[in-house]
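Practice problem: predict the structure.
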Amino acid sequence: MLRSETFWLTLTNILLGAALIVCVLILVLGDICDALSAVRKRRSYRVELNHDMREIFAATPARVATLGDGSAKPAHRLLEALCRICRRLVHRTG
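Answer:
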């Protein structure tokens, strides 16, 4: 059986341990929320920038695409492939 002296010591230790766990959980939850907020903010900036770029440059045709003799197709494909590679690299490191 527990004596009254050790009972209060044990109860205090349990309560302090529970308070510590609650504090750690609150800190971890706050860090996760901050990280998610930063990701959402970054994503919204990218979406807004992409939208603005489409609005600005949609009316101007690309020089490679305006060549009419058929030689633009391989060059256009090469540029598209390079752009895809760059986008993948940016998204992996970003």
